[in-house]
Amino acid sequence: VPKDISRGTHLNEGNIYIGKATPPAVVKLFQEQFRKVYDLFLMLRYRELVCGGHMVLTFFGQKSEDILMHGDVASMWGLLAEALQTIVRKGRMKHENLTSFNIPFYAPSLGEVKALINETGLFDIEHIGLFEHGSDPQDDDSSSDTVFDCARSGENVAKCIRAVIGPLIIDHFSDAVLNELFMEYASIVSKHLVKGKAKFPVIVVSLKKAPISDQICNLRLENKIKLEQNS
Is Nucleotide-binding one of the keywords UniProt gives this record (predicted)? Predict the structure, then answer.
């Protein structure tokens, strides 16, 4: 999560991720934070690999270059925000806690990933692509976009998201609302799936360690750490 948001500045009120009402300044903060973290990640992986070593990465992405063209990944976080708002209205948690909660997540586009990797000069891209994966981890049927049991799929999605985000919910709110929250979330997701299957774009990239000096990488890493410490 960008520092300006995580410090309690309510720049993204009403959202826990990048939503339709998210100000452009907040979108930029998420993008800049992603670049910082991903750049550091690549530097650290570069140091671990032998010369000519390969690395394959898979992570959620964005089909459109325009981050505000919301895909199903953003929609699922939006539905979780709805569930949280319902719990607030019931008086089960404070509104102030919700406004200060943001998902530490960013789904980049293929263009963003390519540009960042090329800018670092640490790796050569051997392959990069994007495929879509259904939101229900129990649904292996890719031949149809129709959800035949929305209630069950909603529960499956909720269990999956809970496994990922549950510890953050407990840390920021409390474990007292966890079961109620994800029951509400499952119900909201079930209604959303009536429209059809939700599909998450997944980026796959195969990288090869570029032939640059390890000393150059170490120097860049040291400078980056110093900048982070002074910011």
Answer: no
